[in-house]
């Protein structure tokens, strides 16, 4: 889905930039795991680079502390996805003023 968003004519950068690209790519290729011995998350990110006019794949290994993953990376992904889908639901409710206004009132209660 994220690849489709990147390739669409709309500017979806706000969405894809919120998610850690390295973790997204590594986990989709099953190259993201927790190393119990070192007590750190490790991953392998594959990027395309041009070298002498040819495109090649380069493997970048990375690590993320559990604190960074659990307190920064994961909440960003969860918040981004919840906000994205909530906005979509609001758009779907707009033709139904009763439900749309109830949803807006609920959102305004927290402010």
Task: Explain how this protein is built.
With 111 residues, the chain is of the alpha+beta class. 53% of the residues lie in helices and 24% in strands. The protein contains 5 helices and 3 strands; from the N terminus they run H-H-H-E-E-E-H-H. The protein has a 3-stranded antiparallel sheet with strand order 1-2-3. The radius of gyration is 19 Å and the shape is flat.
The secondary structure category is alpha+beta
Q: How many DSSP H or I helices?
A: 5
Helices and strands, in order, run as: HHHEEEHH
Give the C-alpha Rg: 19 Å
| Count of distinct strands | 3
- Mean model confidence by pLDDT: 82
Span of the ends, CA to CA: 32 Å
Q: List low-confidence stretches.
A: none
User: What percent of the residues sit in helical stretches (DSSP H or I)?
Assistant: 40-55%
The global form is: flat
Percentage beta strand? 15-25%
Q: How would you characterize the largest beta sheet?
A: 3 strands, antiparallel
Q: What's the arrangement of strands in the largest beta sheet? A: 1-2-3
Give a summary of the structure in a few sentences:
The chain has 111 residues and is α+β, with helices and mostly antiparallel strands.
